[in-house]
Description:
Blueprint: H1 2-10, E1 21-22, E2 26-30, E3 35-39, H2 45-48, E4 51-55, E5 58-59, H3 68-86, E6 91-98, E7 104-110, E8 113-114, H4 115-121, E9 126-127
Parallel strand pairs: 4-7
Antiparallel strand pairs: 1-6, 2-3, 3-4, 5-9, 6-7, 7-8
Amino acid sequence: MSFCIVILLSGCADSVYTDTVIKPYSVVKVHDGDTLTVNIAGCPDVLCKNMPVRISGIDAPELRGKCPQEIAGAIAAKNYLTGRVMNAQDIALQDPIRDKYFRISAHVFADGVNVGDEMVKQGLARTYSGGKRASWCGGTVVQTNSV
């Protein structure tokens, strides 16, 4: 687990960390459709307890959105993510890096399923690689409460 500490402290986005996987021992809570908090074993609590995780490669609508449609989409995305990760037997954070807010940014897998990819397929999130976010107002947002 000392390798996890190296990754958490380094903040590197270097390709040397490709295929690195962190296995949190618990999910504390889901903040919104693309951010959750986890606990990671094997390093000091100050680094690994209540660690925020942003799902890499997606953008979900914001709970404090600019229109009712965005807010409804945000609630649906949060509900989906909550159901997926809080009921999972196995959570894995693949290819973790630090983002500009000191969160872990990683591809999140719940019981072997890439949660971000599933959210995009269901219309609960969009692919995102940085830069200005597209508006969620005016488009179609899938609403679901189930996993």
